[in-house]
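Re: beginner question about structure tokens

> Can someone show what the tokenized structure looks like for a real chain? I only ever see the sequence side.

Sure, here's an example I had lying around. Input first:
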Amino acid sequence: MSGTAADRFRTAAERFSALVRCTADWSAPTPVDQWRARDVVEHLTTWLPGMLAGCGVALDPGPSAQDDPTAAWEHVRGQVQGLLDDPGKAGQEVTQEHLGTLPLERLVDTYYTPDVVMHSWDLARSSGQDDTIDPDFVREAHAGMLSMEPMIRGSGQYGEQQPEPEGASEQERFLAFIGRDPRWSPPA
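And the corresponding structure tokens:
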């Protein structure tokens, strides 16, 4: 995914929005243990606003993903895109206790945009939609994460490495690395 932080988020968010709009069963299981489709949206609409609030950047409250996943996602998506599209806000230095001080756009680009991309796969698998992840993202993310594996595993943010299927594609190897079963499908 090329371009600016705003461009990368826009691309990831548009993809996730398309998946959200086409999800019919919000109680469907996902590749993430104990999560339903609605929980994927809940995660993406709560953790970043909470982190930003701790950095002194407040997003306007919106609908709950438990009540309306589509409206909740679009509300957060619009606000994050607005921050990234405003050079003054995007370049604003924020301080987060575990990450230190960095520009807001870097925080979103480094942590939130990749999370949107990875959870797009979860929602796509859960809802039977196209689960293809941008190959450039997969290649770059996997290479970057391999160099930080001990820290990633220790963070609790990713599951244990899963077995790679024989003849695994680059996407399947990446998914196994982040703790997903690349061949997961909803129970019959």
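Each token stands for a local structural state, so reading them left to right follows the chain. Residues 134-188 form one domain.
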